[in-house]
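tool_log.txt
---
The assistant was asked to compare two proteins side by side. It first ran the structure predictor on the initial sequence, then on the second. Raw inputs and outputs are pasted verbatim so the downstream comparison step can read them without reformatting.
(1)
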Amino acid sequence: MRSPSQAAAPRSAFADLPLLAVALVWGSSFLAVKHLASAATVVPMLVLRFGVVLPLLGVFAWRGLRGLGAAQWRGGAALGGILGGIFLLESYGVVHTSATNAGLIISLTMILTPLAESAVSRTAIPRAFVGAAALSLLGVGLLTEGAGLHAPSLGDLLVLGAAVLRTAHVLAMSRSRALRGVDSLAVTWVQLAAATVVFALACPFAGPAPWRVAAHWGLAQWALLLYLALFCTLFAFFVQMWAVRATSPSRVSLLLGTEPLWAAVFGIALGGDRLSALALFGGVLVLLGTEAGRRAVVPSQSAHPAPEPALGTARNVHEAIG
């Protein structure tokens, strides 16, 4: 007979493939957004994308939504406002920088979140993590130098702002008493709906109406929109719900952490991104730093029972930017 550990190994390996697929589609979504939207159509694109996601996700979330109280609706809506800001910063950032830069810079969320949690809870953070954070920040500095050392581009700064806002979203989510123990599917739907309201309110001031943009899209644009909605959001969401029960949270974190690598692969191979030797070295430092930082904090988490996944966070509903 096989031991329990031997029996668990195939199950974990089986869970790895869908998780890697999620990391892959998240990495590709930066390039998808860059091809789909321009500075004038970012907000209409987001309205259309969420207009596809919300009804489909609502079919599965309906039962949980009926059980939400007023405080939970308000809490989810407040977090959704932050989520809307994240989508806007990421999308505009991708438009104004390369898909490779965007994917690597947004990965700083994995470094910023533990640092912020440590500051808020006033707990010490491992020295190894501090070193990894410094390595990542150095990498971002080199990555954004372009053809010569200069200030980061507008797009780089917008994506960096999105990483900071993602960190704030994760902290707010974890500290929201009203949302503790609440169905994650329902909370995610409320947040996405609130973010859509943000986009709808911004539409009159940020480009043409969504229906006008939709009317001018061809088959390629609609294919990209459906890819972002169905794969980068819905597929990623449900895979995580399943995987966090089939494997450990630390394994999920490590596998999904390959997203910036895939962003660089797609950006360079398909997007035509060209990095100088110094910028390429910076990208490698970002990958090494975020991976080392994640490994420095994840082992301590794995000692605890697997929690209900925080699928309402910006990264989980992906965003991706997507």
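(2)
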Amino acid sequence: MQISENQPFVPVILGGDIGAYSLAREFHEQYDVHSVVVPSVMTGITEHSRILLPRPFAQQDDPGAFAAFVSELGREFGGANGTKRPLLLLGAADQHIRFIATHADELSEWFTIPYVGNAELDRATEKDAFYQLCRDLGVSYPATVVHDCAGGSVDAPALEAELAAEGVPFPAIVKPSDGVAWGALEFQGKKKVHTVASLAELTELVAKASAAGYTGTLVVQDLIPGDDSGMHLATFFSDKAGRVRFVSCGRVIVEEHAPGALGNSAAIVAQPNDVAVAEGTRLLEELGWTGFSMFDMKLDPRDGAYKFFELNPRLGRNHFYVTAAGHNVTRFYVEEYLRGGLAGGNDLQVASERHLYNILPLRLLRRYVPGDMKSGVEELISSKRYSHPLYYKKETNPRRWLYILLSTVNHYRKFKRHHPAA
């Protein structure tokens, strides 16, 4: 598949996961355009597709080489801004957004870039800075201690005293402030998010991370009780003036628990959430944020408050729940960044339609639906208001559909091995 010279604009999407494919599908559905997708390796998600042109590049951890490769894509598909057709440069993961921000000066010769710069990224995405912002604005978040790993050693008694003073008991959650640096680490037992049962486990984890070269901070947090269905998310779009223009919220039914995918949503019900809209809007407008963002939060059964975990500086991996519920996310990119701005003045649009996003076999999903959601989920299934981002009827290659079938069924094995009992 090649990109037609008559195509009015070209999305160039860095990444190759289900979120990257979702973006390519959404552009195809909304505008009948093909996207260039840049995975580090080819997988079944990007192979044998009729709607995207894959251009794999393995050295994405080499910023200079990656910038040269992406610039060459700009020359090939667009030319300098204003002389040919526009190109949108998008990223599917945090490291892509940081890469784009760092190399924005050179890449903007070829691409329209719908992301904030490094300074804004630091304030919003480094977790200790984010929690300070929450404190300043009175937004709820889990009790937290931030431990600096730069020194390499741990003063265990001092750390224990600090945890007690901040109200962080064991077991506790541990996650990195710098997710990009953490992703580049290698050490035995590493996960995206750790649960530690004792001070000894915490100090061991800090020692392993430090020995592997991590010099950032680790966030140690109160473990909010409850299963996956206590998790909620909210996807926002802010215009170039920093005004929040659109929000879509969802409640997670079940997450993946395999070490490399821990915390990734497997099923989400799109539904309104007034608290998330109000609190997220306050945070974003204080930041002067532009473009898409996504918040993770959990409903704490102890006090009934939504505790905000983090701001993702992009569309989430499972953002297709927004499009499936009737609001194709690519429209916001194109109208705001390529066609002069969103219509509607300063109006805020809040999504209200309920829809089920799901990547699991329905039989497996039903094992994990919480009691208070069972009737609502069954109603969505019976009325065909559910969607899988890879199930796109414009894809006609049988080899692709075989991959999708096998990967969907493979969730039985993964859940049996890694997931807590239903």
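---
observation on (2): The chain is about 35% helix and 20% strand. The first helix runs from residue 18 to 31.
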